[in-house]
Amino acid sequence: MGALLPVGSGPDAEIVDRLNELFSGKDLATLRKHNKKEKLFDPSHRLRRVAFRIGAYPSKDYGKDDAKRKWFFFLHHVLPQETQEAIKKILGDAMTRTAIKAVKFSVEENSVVTHPHLFPSNNEPLANYLNGAGTAYLVHLVVQGPMDDSAEDPPGDNDPDSGEQPIAWPELSLRRPTFRRTKSGGGKRAGKKKVVSKKKAAKKAAKRPRKR
Predict the structure, then answer these.
(1) In the predicted model, is pLDDT for residue 35 greater than 60?
(2) Can you tell me whether residue 93 is helix, strand or coil?
(3) Residue 126 carries which DSSP code?
């Protein structure tokens, strides 16, 4: 998100889409439930470590551009601590305010800025980050431009934050395929034959007109 090449598309667009997915709907509900036993965005939790744990990083193949490693370099070395704290303040509040239905992320390139920061600033009251309806936080990051090729490995399981607990994501449920009936009979399931009792058959035969 403002860390990759080019800003606003490719891996940059992927991480924005991934963040928007994680902080809405069922995924947001899962994070809120987990947050009741482990405060994900308190001072003892690093933003880059939480991002790694919840899968908030690009995962597609971009050839020589190692987007995942570049993203974590951005979180670790490029994103200022002040900006990280502002983001954590928003996300921490979204964990407990049920009126908030989503957190929406976006990025803007502006060559005038000297460091990545939230719009309009990192020091706004929480209400200033809300949308007009007051139902979503808007995390709009302003960056100077694309990152260089610096990269590092993401934080692994050998470097946990204090008090970490496994996040219980809902299991994937698979739907059984359904088959439509066709005129030719393709895709039809073998049905049971209709059984007619002898008594009913005799009644039907009696009603038929006899041939003269």
Answers:
(1) yes
(2) helix
(3) G
pTM of the model: 0.77
**Tokens coding 202:** 């005799």
What is the Cα–Cα distance from 94 to 104, expressed in whole angstroms?
Answer: 11
**CA 88, CA 184: separation in Å to the nearest integer?**
60
Sheet holding 117-118, edge to edge: 102-109, 136-143, 117-118
Residue 152: pLDDT band with limits 50, 70, 90: confident
Measured distance CA(136)–CA(139) in Å, rounded: 10
Euclidean distance between CA atoms 147 and 62, whole angstroms: 15
Q: Cα separation of 3 and 105, whole Å?
A: 14
Instruction: Note if the bond before 80 is cis, omega within 30 degrees.
Output: no
**Type and span of the H or E element at 164:** none
* Helix or strand (DSSP H, E) at 115: none
